[in-house]
Design brief:
Strand content: under 5%
Number of helices: 9
Radius of gyration: 16 Å
Largest sheet: none
Helix content: 55-70%
């Protein structure tokens, strides 16, 4: 196993220092994920930009949580599931929805469950989705824009989930109470 350094703004590669300052400003701390990503400034910068794009997507807070957490659970990310549990709670997302996503259960809300199933179909099919899945997605009221925005969020989660697998990133203190495993 390769050991990864948890960088901060004092010891990070020069190109990552300002990015870590931005993380600290945005989150009130440097999340361990960002501290690991600082080893590759382009990765950290790309992740931060994709995170911003996800937040500014056309998805509401529940829908965004469904996309993020569905991917985190599918990828079995020990770090992102607890982190996004905390983020969802901070966004005042319904506790039942949060728990069902963590447990990979069917969602009570039909539209949100359709979103979850579409995210899984896109992920498992590597972008290849059958017509019935797409029809169900659009019939639920989602748009082509949202279908493509899922891909943006998938890219974000691929960066974080895979980094966490490689680095075995320690869960940040504020999220330890939400620890998770498959």
């Amino acid at each position: 196993m390769t050991d990864f350094t948890l960088y901060d703004e004092t010891n990070a590669p020069e190109k990552s220092k300002a990015l870590l300052e931005e993380s600290k400003k945005s989150f009130g701390m440097i999340p361990n994920l960002h501290a690991v990503m600082a080893e590759a400034p382009g990765l950290l910068e790309g992740y931060q930009k994709l995170h911003e794009l996800a937040l500014n997507s056309s998805f509401d807070k529940e829908q965004l949580t469904v996309v993020w957490q569905t991917l985190n659970v599918e990828h079995e990310c020990h770090y992102c599931v607890p982190a996004h549990t905390g983020i969802a709670k901070n966004m005042d997302v319904n506790d039942e929805l949060i728990q069902k996503l963590r447990d990979d259960k069917k969602l009570s809300d039909t539209k949100l469950n359709t979103l979850k199933n579409t995210v899984l179909a896109l992920t498992r099919g590597r972008g290849n989705v059958d017509d019935d899945t797409l029809k169900t997605f659009f019939d639920a009221g989602f748009t082509r824009q949202q279908l493509l925005e899922i891909i943006t969020i998938m890219a974000q989660k691929l960066m974080s989930n895979y980094t966490n697998h490689l680095a075995n990133t320690p869960v940040d203190e504020p999220f330890k109470k939400f620890e998770w495993s498959k």
